[in-house]
UniProtKB/TrEMBL annotation:
Family as reported in the entry's similarity comment: Belongs to the binding-protein-dependent transport system permease family. CysTW subfamily.
NCBIfam families per UniProt: phosphate_pstC (TIGR02138)
Protein name from the UniProt record: Phosphate transport system permease protein
One GO CC term on file: plasma membrane
Taxonomic source organism: Acidihalobacter ferrooxydans
Topology in the lipid bilayer: Multi-pass membrane protein
Amino acid sequence: MSANSLFASAAALRARRLAQGRRMDRLFRLATVLFAWGVLLVLGAIIVVLLVQAWPAFSRFGFGFFTSTAWNPVTENYGAASSILGTLVTAFIAIALAVPISFGIALFLTELSPRWLRRPIGIAVELLAGIPSIIYGIWGLFIFAPWFADNVQWRISDTLGNLPAIGPLFQGPPIGLGWLVAGLVLTIMIIPFIAAVMRDVFDVVPTTLKESAYAMGSTRWEVMRHIVLPYTSVGVIGGIMLGLGRALGETMAVTFVVGNAHDIHASLFMPGNTIASTIANEFTEATTVPHRSALIALGLILFIITFVVLALAKFLLLQVERGQGQKA
C-alpha cells in the first residue's frame, strides 16, 4: 500500500471518529437538557396538582384558612394557623440550637481534635445523619420526652416561667410533649447534617492560609473567625439551609413528640402540631372532599414556605459571593 493510500485511510478514520464524537456530544447535550427540563416539568406538575386539589379548601374558607385555628372534621371547618405556627416555631428552635453546636463539632474535628480521634467521631456524625427519622421519633417519645419532663422541664418552668416577657413561653404542666420537645428532637436530627457539611467545607481551606495566620500570632478562634469562615461562608450557609429544609419538612419524628393538638398556646410546653404531622396523622382518615382538600392545602403551604426559605438562602448566597468578589 502506498504512502498516499495510508494517509487517506488515516484521515478517513480520523474523520469518522470526529463525526462519532460530535454525535455523542449532541446526544449527551440533548440528554442533559431533557433532564434539566424534566426537573422543572415535575416541579410544575406538583404545583398544579396541589393547586387543583387544594382549591376547594381555599374557595370555601378563603383567607380565613390561613388565620383560623379551627380544625373540626365533624363540622367540616378547617384552618391552618396552628399548623403553620407549629412548623415555624419548631424549625426555628431546631436551627437556633443546631447551628452553634454543629459549628463547635466541625471546629473541633478540623482544628482541635487529635488525629486519631477525628475519624471515629467523623464516622459517628455521618452515621447519625443516616438514621431514619422514625427512629428519632420513637426514641424521642419513649426515652427523651419522659426524661425531659421528669428532670428538665419543671426546672425550666420554675426558673424561667416567672420571668417577665419570656415567662409565658415556659409555663405549663411537665408532660414532655409539645413544641419545645419537638424542636429539641429536630435539633438532634439536623446537627449531623450541618456538622458534616461544615466539617467538609472547613477541610478545603488551604493550609497555607491558616499557617500564615498562625505565624502572625493569631489564635485558633481568630483563624476561624478571619480566615476559615470568610473562605467557607457559602458552604456553611448552604449546610445550614439544608438542615433548615429538613427541619421544616420533617414528619415522623415530630409526629411522635409534638402532641398533635390543633391549638395555639403561648407556652412551648403545651401540645401543638405542624403541617407535616397533621398530614401524616389525618390523611388516611380524610374521606370527605373538604377534609382531603384542607390537608392538600397544608401541603401546598409547606411547599411554598420551603420554596421561599430556599429562595432566600440562594439570594443570601449570591450576596455573599458578590461581596467576596468585590473584596477580591
